[in-house]
């Protein structure tokens, strides 16, 4: 049985060989970042996050451990490649396509995004990417947002999707405002006695106001049901909300996303998540959250009309 030391020597020899081959391709990441992504690839294939620990910040490594320990069996579909560079935050992103085998043996295709700080060359965070069409809708939209705002919206949606998948309860405690307005619809059975007439029964959807604590508890109960995955459908809308100067320009956004949340035990929620997002601070903050099941959805523009900010 080889010692860990011998294994690591072999690993870095493999890196050198792979590096020579890699630069035959035009779309590979910059050479100075190549050992970082190869180390992450090796960690994923070995299911051992410690191999790449030196390339992560503390927070980034915590997410990486969570990913490999909580989200089923992960296998690389291809090598990591350069994705984009966010000059405002000095972050270089690399994408790594993977296949995830869940507890019920179903296979999910995902793309992991490594966000690398270009100053210290440490991976700050690791998230699941949106679909290519969703990203294109954000960056190619004709709406008058700054490039900085587009990256912030993309980052928020990636972070939230990843937190749902990894059952990161702490993330939602950070991003939901203490005074957030939260409405979650639910289906109720009803039965009406009509005297001599026929009784009437059926179902109806009721919107329930929830506190922040109640929503966090509901999420925790959902997380306890088994390994889950979230799919953001390509049916989503993002736009600015005018706050008449209360918040800086490009700070208040309305987002509506069609979402499918499925768990390995068979549980599934399908519906629309609509948010009032405050991007004016250091981190995004959800001020209004509305979850609606399909067939009972307030249109996006009707949602925006609900706000009268003076």
Structure notes:
It is a single chain. The protein has 8 helices and 11 strands. It folds into 2 domains: 4-129, Nuclear Transport Factor 2, Chain: A; 169-305, Nuclear Transport Factor 2, Chain: A (Roll), CATH 3.10.450. With 310 residues, the chain is α+β, with helices and mostly antiparallel strands. 28% of the residues are buried.
In terms of topology, how is this protein built?
Elements lengths: L3 H19 L11 H13 L11 H13 L2 E4 L4 E6 L4 E11 L5 E11 L4 E7 L3 H8 L7 H19 L3 H7 E17 L7 E11 L1 H12 L4 E13 L11 E12 L4 E11 L6 E9 L6 H6 L5
Would you kindly provide a brief summary of this structure?
It contains 8 helices and 11 strands. It has 310 residues and is α+β, with helices and mostly antiparallel strands.
Q: Largest beta sheet: what is the strand line-up?
A: 7-6-11-10-9-8
CATH architecture of the largest domain: Roll
Strand content: 35-45%
Helix-residue proportion: 25-40%
Mean pLDDT: 76
Order of helices and strands: HHHEEEEEHHHEEHEEEEH
Mass-distribution shape:
globular
**Number of extended strands:** 11
CA radius of gyration is 22 Å
Number of domains: 2
Query: Number of helix segments?
Result: 8
CATH domain class name of the largest domain: Alpha Beta
């Amino acid at each position: 049985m080889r010692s860990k030391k011998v294994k690591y020597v072999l690993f870095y020899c493999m890196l050198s060989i792979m590096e020579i081959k890699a630069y035959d391709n035009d779309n590979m990441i910059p050479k100075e970042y190549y050992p970082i992504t190869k180390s992450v690839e090796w960690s994923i294939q070995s299911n051992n996050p410690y191999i790449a620990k030196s390339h992560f910040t503390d927070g980034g490594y915590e997410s990486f451990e969570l990913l490999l320990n909580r989200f089923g069996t992960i296998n690389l579909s291809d090598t990591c490649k350069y994705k984009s560079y966010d000059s405002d935050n000095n972050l270089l992103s690399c994408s790594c396509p993977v296949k995830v085998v869940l507890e019920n043996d179903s296979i999910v295709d995902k793309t992991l995004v490594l966000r690398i700080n270009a100053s210290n060359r440490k991976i700050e965070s690791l998230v699941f990417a949106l679909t290519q069409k969703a990203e294109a809708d954000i960056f190619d939209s004709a709406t008058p947002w700054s490039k900085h705002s587009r990256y912030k919206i993309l980052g928020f949606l990636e972070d939230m999707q990843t937190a749902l998948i990894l059952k990161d309860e702490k993330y939602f405690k950070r991003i939901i405002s203490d005074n957030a307005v939260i409405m979650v619809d639910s289906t109720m059975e009803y039965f009406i006695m009509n005297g001599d007439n026929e009784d009437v029964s059926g179902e109806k959807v009721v919107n329930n106001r929830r506190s922040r604590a109640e929503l966090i508890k509901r999420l925790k109960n959902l997380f306890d049901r088994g390994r889950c995955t979230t799919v953001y459908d390509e049916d989503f809308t993002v736009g600015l909300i005018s706050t008449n100067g209360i918040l800086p320009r490009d700070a208040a956004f309305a987002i509506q996303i069609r979402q499918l949340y499925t768990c390995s035990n068979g549980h599934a929620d399908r519906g629309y998540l609509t948010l009032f997002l405050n991007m004016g601070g250091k981190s995004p903050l959800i001020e209004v959250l509305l979850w609606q099941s399909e067939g009972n959805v307030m249109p996006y523009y009707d949602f925006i009309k609900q706000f009268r900010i003076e």
